[in-house]
Amino acid sequence: MSTVISKDGTTIAFDAFGSGRPLIMIDGATAYRATNPLNAETGRLLADEFRTYAYDRRGRGESTDTAPYAVRREIEDVATLVEDAGGGPAVIFGWSSGGVLALDVAASGLVPVSHVAVFEPPFVVDDVRPPLPPDYVERLDAANAAGRPDEAVAIFMTDAIVASPEDVEGLKQSDFWPVMLGIAPTIAYDGRIMGTTMSGNPLPADRWASIDVPVLVMHGIDTWPTLIPGPRALAELLPTATLKPVPGENHGTTADVLAPALRAFVQGA
């Protein structure tokens, strides 16, 4: 493990693989290196061409956190990793809500970016599932401020994932429940990143309008049907975007699929 210090003093922990063009892998809500080995596995497969960073987003795993939270701080975290890699331009990849952060990184102008790739950004742009309640982030903040991380996790499960109460109870009985409680404060971070993009309305036309680099938008061929309209809407919105269904299901794929997809995308194949 290595670390860098972000602009606001937060320590960001990471593992890096290979050498070459920087590739920053951004996890979605709740995930980090210890719970998602796919970023490291992908980095090993791409080690001949890329220097891949698998890192713990602030407030998770072995990274620290600094209040108050702002999405810009997470963009600065990515900028610090790119600087560690030699300055870019970098390929930015993001899973789920981490893909939305990847888009924000590319649009920010703070990070030199050559390519952006996202996997199943969980946009809600129609009525195939209930939209995220407008007070979602406020309720998460209130639960965490009151010392009730279990309530924050339950809100995330039922409102964002649309899990049933029975699913939540099942999670409480699993070994993963303490892990979820430990990262509960960061769930609201991803709520802020998602913003209004899970409201059931069209995606904002201006949020990523400045992105002029190639964008690869992926979704699993056999994923949950509710997760396909969002990637399609993004690919239609961004002039430089390409939509690519890939083998995978249940909001995920494998490193054996992801690594060659990313390699071909950057090589222009």
From TrEMBL:
Keyword Hydrolase set for record: yes
Pfam families per UniProt: Abhydrolase_6 (PF12697)
GO MF term set: hydrolase activity
Domain AB hydrolase-1 per the UniProt entry, residue ranges: 37-252
Coiled coil: none
InterPro entries: AB_hydrolase (IPR050471), AB_hydrolase_1 (IPR000073), AB_hydrolase_fold (IPR029058)
Keywords, sorted A to Z: Hydrolase
Descriptive protein name: Alpha/beta hydrolase
